[in-house]
Amino acid sequence: MIYLDNNATTPLDPRVIDKIISFIKEHFGNPSSLYPLGREVKTLVTEAREQVAAAIGARRTEIIFTSSGTEADNLAILGLAEAQPEKREFITSSIEHPAVLETARHLEAHGYTVYYLPVDQTGLIDLDFLRSVISAKTLLVSVMLANNEIGTIEPLEEVVKIAHRYGVPVHTDAVQAFGKMEVKVDSLGVDLLSLSAHKVYGPKGTGALYIRKGLDLRPVLHGGHQEFGLRPGTENTAGIIGFGEAVRILREEWLKDKNRIEKLAGRMKSGFEKKIKGIRFNGHPEKRIKSTLNFSFPGLPAEAILLALATREIYVSTGSACSEGSGEVSHVLLALGLTQEEASSALRLSLGRFNTEEDVDQTLAEMPEIIDELRRELAG
Length: 380
Ligand code: PLP
Known about the structure:
Elements (H helix, E strand, L loop, with lengths): L1 E2 L10 H13 L9 H20 L7 E4 L2 H15 L5 E5 L4 H12 L3 E5 L9 H7 L4 E5 L13 H10 L4 E4 L11 H4 L3 E5 L10 E5 L25 H39 L4 E2 L10 E5 L5 H10 L2 E2 L15 H5 L4 H4 L2 E5 L6 H23 L1
Parallel strand pairs: 1-11, 3-4, 3-5, 5-6, 6-7
Antiparallel strand pairs: 2-8, 7-8, 9-10, 10-12
Helix pairs in contact: 1-8, 2-8, 3-4, 8-12, 9-12
The protein binds pyridoxal-5'-phosphate.
């Protein structure tokens, strides 16, 4: 099979599998227990926390493990809202993942004013719009670092400059950026940053939130004192240990991986553009995660292409995994100005660590045939 949906989730790295298996065989202790069985696990969780912190240039006490990237996004936004109930305005972008967009809608339902930053045709947010709506009443600005559907990289440093002038903190959802570009909290200047293990060859159901030291956040779940009192519940220890191992590998190999994967993706992109007539590339020509490729195939429903590829064991997606199957057209592509028809003909191919030259060759050989066949079927 050829797996080209690494933005939906990545396969576990075999080294992560080994680490998790040996951990769960040897350790069942609760990290909150005071006797050695628990203390040993606590130490391993702390080591994983150090890996995650070091990867983004943070301190280990600034990292909270969560159940997912989604929970990290929720905790960032709702945890700050709990801490500063007098601030009733929130700013985000129109192309966020549902983990942020639906949290914004939740705030709206509770009487908040939410501003959604528009984007240009390439997916870059409108900074003038941000300047026009931000004020001392703003609770938080939340803008993703890289978009999951088109890969566009947002100008976070600019966002931070503008927001901090008003004393407004900035959150970024770095779930898709992490592992694919340099992500350092100090050079970005952000106050909150979300991560997810399963996008970096780690296990599903584990995420992390970076909270800059000194920023007051309140828990949104209520219970014990785990995770510095911010995220109660006995830790998903196997998930956290796997996340730590995935990040250890990432820190050693990400740059080498990045160059190789981007070369493969570049070859895929030019192959598509040369071999398939009438397609449209969606996203920014330069400021993007190069392993994410999003194309519209005007006149063809994306689902038909996806299913035809799947019969040949080539797996791609029509947008984000979360909206797939919902029958909804991508809100990201509509925000870019695509018509319903163009948006519903879009496919995302996302490459990762385990893709090979042969994967690209085979996809480039099969894809034009599939498109020709579908076009003939539709014409006839
Ligand atoms: N944010 C972005 C940009 C994502 O792409 C995803 C996953 O697709 C998430 C958040 C959610 O992460 P998780 O699947 O860990 O909840």
